[in-house]
Amino acid sequence: MRRGNDADIICERNVELVGGAMRRYGQLKQQYEELSRSYAGLYEEHAELAYQYRQIQGELAEKEQQSEEVYTLHQSSRKLKHDMKNHLMVLSSYLASENYDEARAYASQILDKLNAMHSYIETGNTLLNHIINEKFQYAREQGIEIKAQIENLSFASMSSLDFAALLGNMLDNAIEASLREAEHGRELELQITKKQGYETICVKNRIAVSVLTENPDLLSTKEEEGDIHGIGISRIKEIAENYHGMYDVYEMDGFFCIAVFIPA
Prior knowledge:
By secondary structure, the protein is an alpha+beta fold. The protein folds into two domains: 1-117; 124-264, 2-Layer Sandwich (Heat Shock Protein 90), CATH 3.30.565. The protein is 63% helix and 15% strand. It is built from six helices and five strands, in the order αααβαββααββ. It has a five-stranded mixed β-sheet. A hairpin with a 2-residue loop joins strand 2 (187-195) and strand 3. Helix 3 (126-141) packs parallel to helix 4 (160-179).
């Protein structure tokens, strides 16, 4: 009888131990699940904060570069203003002595310096400012005449990466095409306006002969770069369509034009 009682006692103890272990396992599992949920929430919060931090870093870098560009322009303007008095004195001296050829040559040098300077374009959109001023500065250095009509638009529906790729490709294509024209015929126009519910970007570059007639598929004319121009057009089309927009390529009044329409 005693052995039976001992076996019962051992069995009861085992049941208690197993039950306790199961309860402990349940508690640990619950704690684990709660910690996992907390970790997931903290990780998501960390990822969002890291993303915001990178955005702020990018915006700060753009602001710093913009400030440097404005400061450089301001310093150039101050220097030119300071030198202008001396320039006028030299011109006056040439004219007084009837040295008209020297006066014209000197005036031409001054005009060249003035043309090399340009005003910083402020649109109210930091990213837009950066892209336009950077591209325009390069274009002017290459002897391309620039005209611009820019409204203060946000393009809020677009990500910064897509907007930069879109406008950058459009301007790069126009600049590259302008460089293939004779120096006296290099001209580029940029229009950023709102039309019939669309935020519109239109880039034009002057051409001597029809591009669409000679190169209807818009393939690159530079063999070493392959189909670069075509890739640029394809990327522009892809971005426009991703935002339920439209794009158009046409020629008018001696200009090759590409326009993109993004729903506002």
